[in-house]
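ingest -> validate -> predict -> emit
validate: passed (alphabet ok, no gaps, 96 aa)
predict: started
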Amino acid sequence: MALKISRGASAPSSPNARIITTLPDGKICDFIDQKIRPDSPEEYVRQNIERRLVLELGYRPEQIAVEFRLRSAAKAFALTLQSSPKGVSTTRTTFS
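emit:
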């Protein structure tokens, strides 16, 4: 069974489209960044949230960061999902 994955709203015949023939057992393809990730209950929840942000709430994939890191003067924090307001793309920011 072939799985067709296209980036964003690209048509399947676009140059950004790629075809993965199979995914290894225990792996899934991330909805936002198209990276292959380990399948886990937490990842399943994150994928559902990513799909809902894009398909139901109208966010663009560029507005969503996966595995986003925040740094402060004392400590680094990891967010598994970060979204920005509509019209603003995600950027990496250092807090002090």
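Confidence is low (pLDDT under 50) at residues 6-11.
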